Write the structure tokens for this entry.
Amino acid sequence: AQSVTQPDIHITVSEGASLELRCNYSYGATPYLFWYVQSPGQGLQLLLKYFSGDTLVQGIKGFEAEFKRSQSSFNLRKPSVHWSDAAEYFCAACSGNTPLVFGKGTRLSVIA
Amino acid sequence: EAQVTQNPRYLITVTGKKLTVTCSQNMNHEYMSWYRQDPGLGLRQIYYSMNVEVTDKGDVPEGYKVSRKEKRNFPLILESPSPNQTSLYFCASSQTSVNTGELFFGEGSRLTVL
């Protein structure tokens, strides 16, 4: 079955430190891949997406993600985290005409 | 402003009392969907619609109904709510009927069923 796994339920980082959130997918072929962010009390907002081509994709708010076919991964990164980045992050995937499948999310806390 | 609007944002109701959560988008999107979000379970799709008068079940459709009579509206109906439907609900839309995953989300409707 198609699935998206986010191994980390909760991550805490210091403000200014780098961040990497992990995402692995299980699909027959390379799916379309996405990262969404959910700030407290808000809906989800698309951060970035990967369809094909360059495996390093840039998104909004200074985030980037790297697609690695060999590892079935699509990890999200940010060089320097700001307190306003505290939120829940969801990795998602879909293939062709199939509905979007979300991971269970990683909650990011930022400490001073 | 492009947006997906859900109402109500918060609702407390009792078991068995029918309720409807409305969803409206102003982007002329073809695709609309409902999700529920529960702690530890992430987002799970309830129903989706590829276009007007076309709806399909998602992963957790039991206890819910939807309709898509107009392109902009996609209401979620709970005919006889039960406590296990207490959840945070999100409506989302996408420009094309082929689900490319670029969804625009509403701000959510928190439902409590007593």
